[in-house]
Fold this protein.
Amino acid sequence: MITRRTFTQALGTGAAAASLTVTGLPAALASSRSSATQNTPVVPVVTPGAHTAFQALRQVRAGQLDVGYAELGPADGPVVICLHGWPYDIHSFVDVAPLLADLGYRVIVPYLRGHGTTRFLSPRTFRNGQQSAVALDVLALMDALGIHRAVLAGFDWGSRTADILAALWPERVKALVSVSGYLITDRAAQRNPIAAAAEHTWWYQYYFATERGARAMQDADRRRELTRFVWQQVSPTWQFDEATFARTAAAFENPDYAAVVVHNYRWRLGIAEGEHRYDQYEARLARRPVITVPAVTLDAGRDPFTAPGDGASYRSMFTGPYEHRALPAIGHNLPQEAPTAFAQAVVDADHL
């Protein structure tokens, strides 16, 4: 019997999803849904990698930045903002965005600070990578585009950013999709060691704490080698080709990339300071605020950063309407590896 969980697991098998017979899947999924999402659209199955590029990019001044972003779908549609992680870029959503746009959503996919065509407006602005700074960038982008509320969907840095907005500004977040669940950084907890195997997975975080690691990020060839290796390590079942990696790696040529990335990881470890302008937000985040907006959380089974326990470790942090899904055959870059499952989570979160 096909259940919602087994269906999304099937969609999450990457290239294997293409071998599924499309006939009958929408009806099967609809029959397995809870009453809260029973009448929501079923996203068509797409083969990962079916799209390779966004047609055009736009730029808008927002807060401290001139933000580069892709936009798809009707201008008057309900808004979805898709947020990428590290070391990735907007191409993580190159298949997701058209799926949502075809369903009538206005889809915004921005380059985060230090990535792609996003630039700081002033050379004097500190190239800060702390979590609240990145979150406020997205809030400023929403203001600049005249967006009051949106569904926020992300992974890695994008999950953290979306979680922060949902926790501190719930009136601006209609619903949330968060890969790996509650990712708001607890700097106090970061002082404590964790299991050796988990520490090993975070090798690059400690590498960036050294000047040697910072220099590797500043060197174009070593940066490319390092980020490609991370892709292979955290998505062991994703058979991406060199062209796919190259399209994303172009975003790492941003002149502020190394500074923002290195500061992000050093700040998390407590060995780099943030800016006082963000102290009030970090103080609120340190209190571990719960997320009250409707949320769907996704766990990728082949991602070494996925917490054990099928989402149980962060379940209490989501107090509103909630669903959790596991995709056992998928790695860290979940939206690019399993775009149909990710897009379905967005649609379903919007209807919780």
Remarks:
- Residues 1-33 have pLDDT under 50 and may be disordered.
- Residues 220-234 form the longest helix (15 residues).
- The two ends are 24 Å apart (CA to CA).
